[in-house]
Specification:
With about 325 residues, the chain is an alpha/beta fold. Helix content is about 40%, strand content about 20%. It has a 5-stranded parallel beta sheet with strand order 4-5-6-7-8. The longest helix is centred in the middle third of the chain and has 15 residues, at about 120-135. The chain is globular.
Length: about 325
């Protein structure tokens, strides 16, 4: 079946930079896609890479597709493409084929809460923590969850900051600590020893490099460990890793696979943003809402307060398309 493909580039700046041990993210760029079949059914997708190498890969693939790909050719290629472009076309095909969306049995689900992503700078971090506790704690129906990206400064500096954070956290709050592959085994062991009896720690996220699966497995026997970048690098781990999996739909490929997992209420998944437009956000929020119905519900990581106010983040895909 021949389809009509339209493509639009987009770009935007985050309200404030995201600092990780691997990079500083200040800007996102990518493409929106619109697929339409002969019955005028429309599906929307978003190609939203996080690094420049994937941007260039996706650009080359799009240049070869033309404006009239067949449904069969797209389905056969999705698994071979980088995750961000696989997501876009899988999402568009799912919507065009009425697997999800308004007018189908699986309507888009909203999500009402998220973990709070803390700034990296100590002063800003403590201000954000104080502000959230003062303004949200009494009205929050779920445990407040905070995510802190570490491995940006020395262990000594961040260890002192950890104690300041723990001193402020209520007993029923949760803390996620994300090293973004920035520790070695000795550093990770030091943090694990310090935190293994801390009931407010939800997990250490990607504490070791993506390929150190042996080290990650050993650490997970001692303290909760969540994988993120390792799942992107080695997708087969999504089937074998028994502890928490940070799933970033817009980066990992065809979202129909994760949709099936969460529809079946598979546990130990948590949905995380990659700072996407409203088109990708519909999927992120829908999957996060399904995760809340799993055997292990937890707060998604949607990074509230980091995206600008713009029609580009509207939940109506046509509005997003026109804003790009």
């Amino acid at each position: 079946m021949e389809l009509r493909l339209e493509i639009k580039p987009f770009s935007f700046h985050l309200l404030k930079p995201i600092q990780t041990s691997q990079q500083i993210i200040t800007r996102k760029e990518g493409w929106l896609i619109k697929l339409q079949d002969q019955d005028n059914r429309v599906g929307w997708g978003e190609i939203s890479p996080l690094n420049s190498s994937e941007v260039n890969q996706c650009k080359k693939i799009l240049a070869k597709l033309g404006s009239s790909p067949t449904k069969e050719s797209l389905e056969s290629q999705i698994k071979t493409w980088p995750g961000p472009i696989g997501f876009a076309f899988g999402a568009a095909l799912a919507e065009m084929n009425c697997l999800i969306g308004d007018g189908t049995k699986q309507k888009w689900l909203p999500v009402s809460s998220s973990a709070v992503l803390l700034p990296s700078n100590e002063l800003e971090l403590l201000r954000c923590l104080d502000y959230t506790l003062e303004n949200q704690y009494d009205n929050c129906t779920k445990a407040l969850t905070f995510k802190w990206k570490v491995a940006n400064y020395s262990n000594e500096v961040e260890s002192v900051l950890l104690q300041k954070i723990l001193k402020k956290l209520p007993n029923d709050a949760l803390l996620r600590i994300d090293a973004n592959c920035g520790w070695n085994r000795n550093q990770a062991k030091e943090w694990a020893q310090e935190l293994h009896q801390e009931p407010r720690l939800e997990w250490l996220e990607q504490p070791l490099p993506v390929g150190d699966i042996e080290g990650l497995e050993e650490l997970a026997q001692y303290i909760p460990v969540a994988l993120d970048e390792s799942l992107i690098k080695t997708p087969s781990l999504r089937k074998t890793w028994k502890s928490w999996q940070i799933r970033r739909p817009v980066l990992e490929g065809d979202p129909r696979i994760l949709l099936k997992e969460l529809t079946n209420k598979t546990g130990y998944r948590v949905i995380s943003t990659s700072f996407e437009t409203g088109i990708g956000r519909r999927w992120v929020e829908h999957l996060a809402a399904l995760q809340q119905e799993s055997s292990t519900p937890t707060q998604p990581g949607l990074a509230p307060g980091w995206l600008p106010s713009s029609p580009l983040f509207n939940k109506n895909p046509r509005t997003v398309w026109e804003a790009a």
